């Protein structure tokens, strides 16, 4: 490797941290290099600890911040030039100058009063560098303009993320979210939604868990059970208030879970669905059925999930009996036209980030009009039409969901949306299609929260 000559100040890059340009002061009196960082936080497991921190690479521009993360290699007691001693986290990363690069160790410290964002110590200089202490910037000049260009994001490294999965269940979907995330080097924590509690205030909203404030997460993946929708969406709203990226927002989950609200949203967007009617008064039973059409009819509880609370009434008399029974239980329900030509089959389209990433056809068990896999149905991969794809995308977009399972019926009048599920399971569709759906979800999360300059409003 060709030997370089440094002056007392040089432009360098730390590409693994997403820092393409930063001025560093050469300090041969220090053994280890130092980077002036804010919001330093340890995360990950005890076997593979990581540290996350924010950098203001441009002196005097505290409004420009880049979030970085790196493996944690040590914690050392460091004495600064003014005699102050502190414990600092130590990371290992790559230093790049001109067309050369080599690994160095860096300590992290919050010293915002320093004019230099970084100090280069003896270990970083090693045998690669000779020093000309009376000169500066002997190596090629870089520019802070890079932090204002659009391609910074595309060149940024895929840093380790801290991700929360809001789930109360230890099932296939939750385990896959953890396994795939950790295989990509991220720290994924499963949080029981009902054990979260919130400090609601204007200046510093917080989410607490088991007696401690939860850390800053890069992203939250909600898997909220139907029975706790109101509280679960309140927790998600709190994360949204903090500024955390939530794969599915609280408003979309709330609207999709309420079947009456969901059908009103679909109708407002002119998205095809079975003819649907709703009424509160027992006196309106015959009129309600008349709005939908002739028997057979579907009578569906508004809170139904996985096919529970969904009844096929083959005759008008049967429909009246079911409606009377539901009303006797003071249950909210709606009545829908039965799409006979679907023949007990529906199509589940899995939408991630505005794309249908997989589709499967679900067929009900023998004698059952419901095709839910939880009720013994079977699934196989299916090729969907352009119209079906567009319908699924429009349905997910109508609720603003980054991840959704859209259930379609194939009718003579075209695809009709049965349901938009904000917490679709991954097991059935991954096994039916052989696709890594969870990996595609992480692709979107990484694209959303990769290091890039974030600008705060200047006071």
TrEMBL record:
Keywords from the UniProt entry: ATP-binding, Ligase, Magnesium, Manganese, Metal-binding, Nucleotide-binding, Protein biosynthesis
Co-factor requirement: Mn(2+); Mg(2+)
Residues annotated as domain ATP-grasp: 263-446
Pfam families assigned: RimK, Rimk_N, Zn_protease
An example molecular function term from Gene Ontology annotations: glutathione synthase activity
Enzyme Commission code(s) on record: 6.3.2.3
Family annotation (Gene3D superfamilies): 3.40.50.20, Acid Proteases, ATP-grasp fold, A domain, ATP-grasp fold, B domain
Keyword field contains NADP: no
Name of the molecule in the record: Glutathione synthetase
Gene name of this polypeptide: gshB_1
């Amino acid at each position: 490797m060709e030997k370089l000559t440094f002056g007392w100040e040089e432009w360098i890059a730390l590409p693994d941290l997403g820092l393409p340009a930063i001025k560093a002061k050469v300090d041969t009196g220090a053994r280890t290099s130092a980077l002036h960082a804010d919001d330093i936080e340890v995360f990950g497991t005890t076997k593979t600890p990581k540290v996350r921190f924010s950098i203001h690479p441009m002196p005097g521009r505290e409004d420009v911040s880049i979030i970085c993360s790196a493996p944690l290699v040590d914690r050392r007691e460091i004495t600064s030039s003014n005699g102050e001693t502190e414990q600092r986290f130590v990371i290992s990363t790559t230093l790049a100058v001109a067309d050369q690069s080599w690994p160095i160790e860096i300590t992290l410290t919050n010293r915002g009063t320093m004019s230099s964002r970084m100090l280069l110590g003896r270990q970083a200089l090693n045998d690669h560098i000779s020093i000309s202490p009376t000169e500066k910037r002997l190596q090629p000049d870089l520019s802070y303009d890079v932090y204002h260009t659009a391609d910074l994001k595309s060149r940024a490294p895929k840093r380790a993320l801290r991700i929360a999965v809001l789930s109360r269940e230890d099932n296939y979907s939750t385990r896959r979210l953890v396994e795939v995330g950790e295989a990509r080097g991220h720290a994924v924590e499963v949080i029981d939604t009902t054990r979260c509690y919130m400090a609601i205030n204007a200046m510093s909203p917080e989410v607490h868990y088991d007696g401690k404030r939860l850390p800053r997460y890069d992203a939250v993946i909600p898997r909220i059970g139907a029975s706790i929708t109101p509280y679960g969406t309140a927790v998600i709203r709190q994360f949204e208030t903090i500024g955390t990226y939530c794969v599915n927002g609280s408003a979309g989950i709330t609207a999709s879970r309420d079947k009456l609200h969901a059908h009103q949203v679909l109708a407002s967007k002119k998205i095809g669905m079975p003819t649907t009617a709703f009424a509160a008064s027992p006196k309106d039973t015959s009129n309600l059925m008349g709005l939908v059409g002739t028997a057979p009819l579907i009578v569906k509880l508004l809170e139904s999930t996985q096919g529970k609370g969904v009844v096929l009434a083959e005759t008008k008399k049967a429909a009246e009996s079911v409606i009377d029974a539901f009303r006797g239980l003071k249950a909210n329900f709606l009545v829908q036209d039965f799409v006979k030509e679907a023949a007990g089959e529906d199509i589940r389209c899995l939408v991630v980030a505005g794309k249908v990433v997989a589709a499967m056809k679900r067929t009900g068990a023998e004698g059952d009009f419901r095709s839910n896999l939880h009720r013994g149905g079977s699934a196989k991969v299916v090729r969907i039409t352009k119209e079906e794809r567009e319908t699924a995308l429009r349905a997910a977009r109508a609720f603003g969901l980054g991840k959704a399972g859209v259930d379609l019926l194939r009718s003579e009048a075209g695809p009709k949306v049965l349901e938009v599920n904000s917490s679709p399971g991954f097991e059935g569709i991954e096994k039916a299609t052989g696709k890594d759906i969870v990996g595609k979800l992480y692709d979107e999360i990484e694209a959303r929260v990769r290091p890039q300059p974030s600008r705060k409003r200047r006071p």
